[in-house]
Amino acid sequence: MSTLHPTKAKLLDTAVALIDEFGPIGFTVDALLERSTISKGSLYHHFVDFSDVIEQAQVIRFSRYIDADIKALFEMLSTARSGTELRERFESLVLATSDPSRADARSDRATIVGLARHSKNFAEALGREQQRVTDALADIAREAQEKGYIRTDVDVRVLATFIQTYTLGFVLNDITIDPILPVEWSKFVSALLAASL
User: Fold this and answer.
1) Greatest alpha-carbon span in the chain
2) What is the residue-level pLDDT of the chain in tens, covering all 197 positions?
3) What is the CA radius of gyration of the chain?
4) Reduced to 3 states, what is the DSSP secondary structure of residue 146?
5) Number of Cβ atoms within 10 Å of the Cβ of 146
6) In this structure, what DSSP letter does residue 48 have?
7) Is 23 left (phi over 0), alpha (psi -120 to 50) or beta?
8) pTM metric for this prediction
């Protein structure tokens, strides 16, 4: 991954913070420039327009929690001494990702995916980021296969996609009137995975 120019990075960091605070349409280009202390000329040197800034910031927001989860999965795999131990640890990760405190992150991801249908450039950028995430998860699954923790007939890309699907899909539980408990979700997902791996 290439390193961003410091000015572009600062604008994106500021845009991410403003989106977190006000939503993607809750602030103006002037608010972005004021908070970042970057000039308008510099903004338009690094981005096509204000929408481009928002879209690139949304791509960053899309995967920030996933990157932490990927790191946790890698740590689990690196320190597990058996497939059983890995599955037990995985259940705690499923529980953490379905925690009510992550409801906003799940909702944001679902919203960002929905917004991609309105912009070809945004959809392509989001698609590249999604591929990066899927590839990272597939690499972890492939390493687990090499250690004998996952059956070799399991398609690692399917598994990587499923992991993301059950996490993002929990957004439906976040909005229901009578939600299921995260611990019950965690047990079910873990049992489903254990039966298929």
Assistant:
1) 57
2) 458 899 999 999 999 999 999 988 899 999 999 999 999 999 999 999 999 999 999 999 988 878 888 888 888 888 888 888 888 888 888 888 888 998 988 899 999 999 888 889 999 999 999 999 999 999 999 999 999 888 899 999 999 999 889 888 899 999 999 999 999 998 899 888 887 77
3) 19
4) helix
5) 10
6) S
7) left
8) 0.83
Distance in angstroms (rounded) separating the CA atoms of residues 132 and 186: 25
The tokens for 97 are 């990702």
Residue type, 128: R
**DSSP alpha helix (H) spans, 98-155:** 103-115, 120-146
Smallest CA-to-CA distance from 154 within 88, 188, 162, 95 is with 162
Cα–Cα distance measured from residue 112 to residue 2, given in angstroms and rounded to the nearest whole number: 23
The answer to whether 141 and 86 have CB atoms below 8 angstroms apart is no
CA 57, 63, 65: angle at the middle one, nearest 5? Answer: 115
Listed as own residue / partner, the contacts of 1-7 with beta carbons closer than 8 Å and 24 or more positions apart are 5/46, 7/38, 7/42, 7/45, 7/46
Q: Which residue has the tokens 């409801």?
A: 103
Calpha distance 9→15 (Å, rounded): 10
Nearest to 62 by CA among 18, 110, 5, 3: 110
**Token digits of residue 53:** 């800034």
Which tokens is 168 given? Answer: 């993002």
Rounded Cα gap, residues 166 and 82, in angstroms: 24
